[in-house]
Structure prediction request, 234 residues.
Amino acid sequence: MRRFWMKMNILYEKLMLFLFVMALLVVAYGLYDTWYVYHHASDDSYLRYKPTASEGVPEDAPITDGMVAWLTIDDTNIDYPVMQSDDNYRYLNENPYGEYSLSGSIFLDSRNDGSFGDPYSILYGHHMEYGKMFGALDDFLEPAYLNSHTHGELIVGRNGEKRYQLRVFAAVRVNVFEESDIFEPDVKDIRGIIRKHAITLRDMPEEGKKILALSTCTEPVSRNRLIVFCEIME
Prediction:
């Protein structure tokens, strides 16, 4: 009997050791996964390929041909290439280099004109921690922040053919199922929807002026979306 209990104790100790090692591996994987996502979301290597006033993206740039523009919102972390494909899924998990990435890319709605000729254009991006990607949009829900961060730039075309100034004028939070029209590029009354849901708002653009929406999720699993609106200045 004594030998039996000794064997049971040894098995118990091995089981505890196994469970401890497994728990340690789970924790290690969680830490690695957090680092991996943050590292890719924080990748600023794209900036070396940003089109300038004198020339476009270098010919040897690894950014794929899906790039249609470059978005910058002054004094924020938002300074990224804008991608577009024939659907709204590809760039959810693909970076501008064409590599798999949980942080994905900033991308233009597939139904929009890639030259931003539409009256209303929609950009999407993941809501990442520390203000990365479109995580920086949260701050625009504060009136004082919106009033002090109103400028940006949209460089259109891989070779920087057109350059527009952006004026940030509103931030809204909507339920994606209750206000789905806000995600339709051909929506008829986007100004009315903005007025209805605006948390912060200043100087609505005049009729005929182009509007750019920057959309992101507010929580990992949520029906709500945070959208910041900019006027595209000719």
About this structure: Residues 4 and 101 are 53 Å apart (CA to CA). Residues 23-41 have pLDDT under 50 and may be disordered. The chain is about 25% helix and 25% strand.
